[in-house]
Write a structure and sequence with these properties.
The chain has 13 helices and eleven strands. The protein is an alpha/beta fold. The protein has two domains: about 100 residues, no CATH class; about 325 residues, 3-Layer(aba) Sandwich (Arginase, Chain A), CATH 3.40.800.10. The two termini are about 45 Å apart. About 40% of the residues are buried. This is WGS project CCBQ000000000 data, contig 00015.
Length: about 450
């Protein structure tokens, strides 16, 4: 309902637009202020009937909760035509608007368009204080990891979680005609209204001054979310989708996932291996510097978080760093096979999906998507861009093709809004990737 102060402001503005209000000087003669000649009720009636604002907007200034004042307003012509008006076309237009009065939503705004309104959460999902309310039940937690101090090139991914949420403003409901392959259950799915409780938990606090402390904060945040109870599959912990942040954050997500689901198989979409031996990247400076966005998968395997021979890269195209084939051999030792970017020019997307599924099997699967797997022409807002990458359509088709896998967690990383275009195309793709994650995690809600 419009507050009295707002109504008074509107009345003053309306008064300025009408020539019917008359003012006289203040009686004390000591100031230049003015007082109205008529009382307030008469003023209101004059303003409503004669002001330009009322002529243009009519009952827009009246509450729409069914009070008598609304009925009275609706009984009046919306546009008054001067008796001497001779333009029949104009009179006809006025008659149309008077006979077809606009109806406004109720003042609770519940049914109003939500794309640009309210606090920005991912896809307008519910925001909850997940770290304060340990009794909160949820099936899928979306959480941000604002961290970018372990990168080798561009920083800025600490702002990625906010950028991805901004890119998700047009998501939140509706069945997609292109989700999944033809005949897929995904074609019948609206993840946001699937019966799964999806919650946006905000961002985990991560200090920018000490990587060791920051990654510990992230691990404790992930562990806290896994300690909540789920609703649909109440014998298992909630699944987490993490919005990065640079790719180092995946290590802590894998650690918490391992503690709750056992060893996982990783499907890693990236233009870079990220299994580099720390001696090759960072570790030659200090041991702490050896843990970064190019070595985290080495540490994930070394610590036993991931399987030994069921992991796979998709979209690799960046050059190796060490001489010869040392990087490739080390990658194999970390349990990874790979589909390079140009393989997609040779084999079909269905074959790519088939190869991924054969590789990871039926165990718990974690999907990690570095947005730089997408070609730099489509996703310029990233930390280490490489040419010759996947199109956004290819990435989303492959992701949706993974229907049926036991996806227990996922992340989207290396989104740098500061390097994106003014159309936010990188953030839009990243948000759609999360939408695909949600589809994979909720598709079992669709019954045959």
């Amino acid at each position: 309902m419009i507050s009295s102060s707002l109504l008074q402001t509107a009345l003053v503005l309306g008064n300025l637009l009408t020539a019917s209000s008359r003012f006289v000087p203040a009686s004390d003669g000591k100031t230049s202020s003015f007082q109205r000649e008529s009382d307030e009720l008469l003023e209101m009636d004059v303003l409503r009937q004669n002001s330009l604002m009322h002529q243009l907007y009519g009952d827009l200034l009246v509450s729409n909760n069914g009070e008598d004042v609304l009925s009275k307003a609706n009984s009046q012509p919306f546009i008054k035509v001067h008796p001497d008006e001779t333009d029949e076309e104009f009179k006809g237009m006025c008659s149309f608007y008077n006979e077809n009065r606009r109806e406004y939503p109720n003042d609770d705004f519940y049914d109003d368009l939500l794309q640009y309104a309210g606090i920005v959460t991912f896809g307008h999902t519910e925001f909850s204080q997940c770290f304060k309310n340990a009794s909160l039940e949820m099936d899928i937690a979306i959480v941000g990891a604002p961290f970018d101090t372990a990168v080798s090139y561009r920083p800025g991914a600490r702002f990625g979680p906010n950028g991805i949420r901004q890119g998700s403003r047009r998501l939140g409901n509706g069945i997609s005609p292109v989700r999944g392959f033809p005949g897929s259950k995904l074609r019948k799915l609206d993840p946001f209204n699937s019966g799964y409780k999806i919650v946006d938990c905000g961002d985990i606090p991560m200090t920018p001054f000490d990587n060791k402390v920051a990654l510990n904060q992230l691990y404790r945040g992930q562990r806290a979310l896994h300690n909540h109870s789920a609703l649909v599959h109440n014998d298992k912990p909630p699944r987490i989708i993490t919005l990065g942040g640079d790719h180092t954050i995946t290590l802590m997500a894998l650690r918490s996932a391992y503690e709750n689901f056992g060893k996982v198989s990783v499907i890693h979409f990236d233009s870079h291996l990220d299994t580099w031996d720390p001696k090759i990247i960072g570790g030659n400076i200090s041991k702490r510097a050896g843990l970064n966005h190019g070595t985290f998968l080495h540490f994930a395997h070394e610590n036993g978080y991931i399987e030994d021979d069921t992991n796979i890269h998709v979209g690799i195209r960046a050059p190796y760093i060490a001489p010869g084939f040392y990087d490739e051999d080390h990658d194999f030792e970390c349990g990874f096979d790979k589909i390079v970017a140009r393989d997609l020019d040779i084999i079909s997307l269905k074959e790519v999906v088939s190869d991924i599924k054969k590789r990871v099997g039926n165990g718990p699967v974690y999907i990690s998507v570095d947005i730089d797997v997408v070609d730099v022409a489509s996703a310029p807002g990233t930390g280490t861009p490489e040419t010759g990458g996947l199109s956004s359509r290819e990435l989303l088709t492959i992701l949706d093709g993974l229907e049926g896998l036991n996806v227990i967690g996922a992340d989207i990383v290396e989104v740098l809004p500061a390097f994106d275009t003014n159309a936010d195309i990188t953030a839009l793709i990243a948000a759609q990737v999360v939408d695909s994650f949600l589809g994979l995690m909720t598709v079992d809600s669709v019954k045959n």
